[in-house]
Amino acid sequence: MGETLGRRMAIARAAQKKTLQGVADEMDKAKSTISQWENDIYQPSLKDIARLASVLNVNQNWLAFGDKQ
């Protein structure tokens, strides 16, 4: 089984040395929302994926689908 969107979020967040709270603040979301996305409890909207990719400085397709750049 491949990596999930949540796992890719966690990898990207760790690479950027950002906390859940830091990402939440930049996204104007609750920390619990970011945690739920990372734990694959809920999926972010396409709009949120685009913003999250920008915040985490990663390719949107990689974040959403695991596609290599």
Automatic annotation (TrEMBL):
Domain HTH cro/C1-type: from-to ranges: 9-63
Protein name as annotated: Helix-turn-helix transcriptional regulator
InterPro entries, A to Z: Cro/C1-type_HTH (IPR001387), Lambda_DNA-bd_dom_sf (IPR010982)
Gene3D superfamilies: lambda repressor-like DNA-binding domains (1.10.260.40)
Top-level taxon of origin: Bacteria
